[in-house]
Amino acid sequence: MNIPPRLSEIAEQLKSGESPPQETVRTFIGWFGAQRRGYWIVLDIRRVLRKLNVRTKPDFDSAFIDSRISFVLDDPPTDSRKEVAPVVTETDASAEIKLGPSTPSPSDRKDPTYRIGRLVSANQVPLSVKPDSPVTEAITLMLINDYSQLPVMTTERDVKGMISWKTIGSRLALGEPAALVRECMEAANIVDATESLFSVIERIVESESVLIRSHDRTIVGIVTTSDLSVQFRQLSEPFLLLAEIENHIRGLIEGHFDASEMSAAKKESDTTRDISSVADMTFGEYIRLLENPKNWERTDLKLDRSVFIKELGRIREIRNDVMHFDSDGITGVEHETLRGFVDFLQQLQDIVRLKD
Length: 356
Fold this sequence. Notes:
three-stranded mixed sheet; three-stranded antiparallel sheet
């Protein structure tokens, strides 16, 4: 892997006592030709940073992808770290990094924890009201922005509580209308941005929201039950779409080929696995089976084989990303590619049914 010129410049600035400007995580990983923080991308970036004796603050792997990170000098590497450090073969900014042992050290490995700070809403500073603000101000802000709650704060770090439709309604139901926000607020739930998303789900569900606190103790976001539902849809939808695509492809293959013909689609090196039905095949084997012109004819599909196989190849690439559980998720374009291919296969199935 090459050392990005901009990162090399930053390392020199730090050594000379300068403070380089902050960059977004997205921009930073883009210097390495990456759009997402996959396992091997993170591994390679960490090794380059270690060679340059630089680290990011906060860590680029745990921060929200569009948040800003600073660059600081790292502690000098220890002997144990030198054992797996990459070797620089050139001294200029385009030096090529030769990676050491294939087994990553603990300091290299990608953080497996899905931090709540990675959510978009955890990085959008929420609107707030002061304790002595009139309740009508809070009501107006919630109506205009379609919010269910607002934090009650005196400064960006000092949280006094939360006001919500529930707290306002409960006071009215008891016949105790309130004039000031402080008269109808409840305790706020605050979590650090570095906490595991899954460890705080129950708290979000119980209180309907949590405030997100950054490393400098400022409140930088709010995560609600609505945000959770959006996030889990984004995480789960690709799996559901891919499952539907795979079921459609199996339907196109099933009944047209026997076990020996399907087994022929395996790689020559794969000698230990048996294929007795289409359910035993991998996605790559679907492609290798159908890209054969004679096999394609047996499916009775009146479609262009090369175009169909090319699209299957795109789906396979997206599938590989999804199955690696990359917490940055897939892009909007990739989502639309999956949805579009599902729609196409559904139409194809409807046409086949009409013919039958």
